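We modelled the chain as a single entity of 372 amino acids. Its sequence is:
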Amino acid sequence: MPSAKQEEDLLVVARPEGLYCPPGDFYIDPWRPVARAVITHAHSDHARPGHAHYLAHVDSAGTLRARLGRDIPLQTLPYGEAIEHHGVRVSLHPAGHVLGSAQVRLEHGGRVWVASGDYKTEPDGTCPPFEPVPCDTFITESTFGLPIYRWPAQAVLFAQIDAWWRANAEAGRASVLFCYAFGKAQRILHGVDASIGPIVVHGAVEPLNAVYRAAGVALPPTLRADDADVDAALLKRALVLAPPSAQGSPWMRRFGNYADAFASGWMQLRGTRRRRGVDRGFVMSDHADWPGLQQAIAGTGAERVFVTHGSVQVMVRWLGENGLDAQAFRTEYGDEDDQETSRGSGSGQTACDADAGSPHPDLPPAGEGEAP
């Protein structure tokens, strides 16, 4: 734990409970129960149960209440509106990660810090795009903080998914696409060509679709697999969105001779598709890729950067080589984007974070890889 003098010099410090703002006496995305928590978004590694008070963006209310309970003590803010707590001015700004995701801007004593949470720099239409917020100190993730990670453009990605779905529909087999139920599933729904066929979703996905629709995000009509209208003929033309936990489960038997695929940033790596046991892999992430991380950090104008999780040491070294004061915060954030990095961690940290920011265990030699 930092000394009192160190805490005086920092607006955010790492404590056993989470990232703590000493002058404001509150935490940002704490992983242990605290009195006051500012939540950047509703993924379970950032929004934990048990806090006495939550502050989040208004569009996170639906997902937070769905995941943590209808009666959680939740205060919400729109983007850009500031409140003051113990002399710290706090405001939330778009992070572009999932619905309601926010960067937390802190202003106190002439200093400005921004804690970004998780973010993505390419707009996807399901949430306001990432907004660079000028600051002195920026706290960044680094989930995909290696030069190998470069995402295809949104239009290219969905052309690939549509072509795969269309070919399967013409062959009379369902297209099962495994993806995370919150964020990625809705992004896929928003981006695919719904004229190709019906869209069926797992029961874990549909409640979150309702939250997105209530927030005004345009999603095509969806059916649940157990709806009366869903029969064998319909399924032969359908796109089916399901969480990774459904793979190999009895729930999958209803689809007969189906084609399957997995949507994840980890599909950039050699061997991931094979290990997942699917026919196709689509390189898709709700986190920034390597160029996106560089763009976001540069856009803040910050002279000091703290890196929280992912390829921490690689990012810290690169930032230092480029003239910034770069340090690491050790955290317990996981990776909602995919569970590939959490094998054996056991603490909610990614394997990268648990190993002090070492590259993904499946990273090919010399940083080379291939998209499946």
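As a brief sanity check on the tokenised model: The first helix runs from residue 4 to 9. The chain has a mean pLDDT of 89.
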